[in-house]
Amino acid sequence: MRKIATLALACVFAGLAAGSAAAQDIVIKFSHVVAPDTPKGKGADRFKELAEKYTNGKVKVEVYPNSQLYKDKEELEALQLGAVQMLAPSLAKFGPLGAKEFELFDLPYIFPDTNALRAVTNGPIGKALFQKLETKGIVGLAYWDNGFKIMSANKAITKPEDLRGLKVRIQSSQVLAAQMKALGALPQVMAFSEVYQALQTGVVDGTENPPSNMYTQKMHEVQKYAALTNHGYLGYAVIVNKKFWDGLPPDTRAALEKAMKEATTYANTIAQAENDSALEAMKKSGKTTFYTLTDADRAAWMTALKPVHQEMASRIGKDLLEKIYATTKR
Q1: Does the residue 107 lie in any domain?
Q2: Which of 321, 58, 65, 83 is nearest to 213 (CA)?
Q3: What GO biological process term is on the record, naming one (predicted)?
């Protein structure tokens, strides 16, 4: 907290500069917790390139990957205090902030495919969710994909019951906790930057991640088995400090919106390819054995996790879930 408060104070002058129409450089600190060679990391770098281009260098974007500035438990507070201007946290992060509706993205098997996902994020539901962040001093700019998650552990995983009794790392999300409990696993909330060491030392037995995160964080080196469950979606919301954003000159904000739109198209286009190549690289390494689910296996996983929807309906909102089901034709 002291670190965040100190940096927030240091950033006051930058915020004042951004809020004026003076022809001074505007600095955007864009912090995230994953590696530069992930879909999010590459998307952030593309935004930097385009933002500086479309503002003719008036805006300088400083990208800080791999939790260089803040861990995922700290970064939202840092944004609200103005210590950083832009983040791309996973959608699960907004539940603990009070916007529990965002936890709908954590529900297992909620999106049958990417087209169904897009219908939600690019439609009225996605816009309404972003509006809920504004009272918290946050403006939502875009939804970025990472991909669909697979389960990994240091024991073979083929069936849902194979996770029974295992300590599995999750993000802070009541939905994800309920998901693991439905599988008989013991959910362990932990910062993303701490997961590799926790897996290496046996503090946790397994985790869930899209292949690109698993590969770039070298988790395949400390996980013997994985199942291609594709049970849950991991995505991000690119967000900005509201006071900073509203204080920008209109022409600058329009240029940044253009840059973000193009960076979003790029990030979401490469996400699947990045996950495919990461999976192939991990298979070639021979350090993790991957199991591909049969149709019967998938049905078993879906049956085991179906009660999570009903259990979390009152938290996320029954009406919202019905809208999701209608939108995704689920």
Answers
A1: no
A2: 65
A3: C4-dicarboxylate transport
What Cα–Cα distance (Å) separates residue 46 from each residue in 13, 41, 247, 275, 325? 26, 9, 24, 18, 33
CA pair distance 89, 297, nearest whole angstrom = 32
User: Residue 4's pLDDT band (boundaries 50, 70, 90)?
Assistant: low
Same domain? For 75 and 169 the reply is no
54 shares its domain with 198: no
Asked whether residue 208 falls in the same domain as residue 87, the answer is no
Question: What is d(CA 72, CA 192) in angstroms, rounded to the nearest whole number?
Answer: 7
- In which domain, by residue range, is 50 found? 2-102+112-145+235-274
Q: Residue 127's CB: how many other CB atoms inside 10 A?
A: 11
Q: What is the mean pLDDT of the chain?
A: 92
Say whether both 52 and 155 belong to one domain. Answer: no
pLDDT for the residue 3: 53
pTM: 0.87
Residue 228 sits in the same domain as residue 139: no
Kindly report, residue by residue over 173-197, the tens digit of the pLDDT.
Answer: 999 999 999 999 999 999 898 999 9
* Any domain includes 304: yes
Say if residue 174 is in the same domain as residue 209. Answer: yes
Q: How many domains does the chain have?
A: 2
Q: Is residue 137 part of a domain?
A: yes
% the chain with pLDDT above 70: 92
- Decide: 17 and 85 in contact? Cβ < 8 Å: no
> Distance between CA atoms of 223 and 153, rounded to whole angstroms?
5
Of the chain, the percentage scoring pLDDT greater than 90 comes to 85
Give the CA distances from residue 212 to residues 108, 178, 203, 279, in Å, rounded to whole numbers and listed in that order: 19, 25, 22, 7
Position 19 scores a pLDDT of: 45
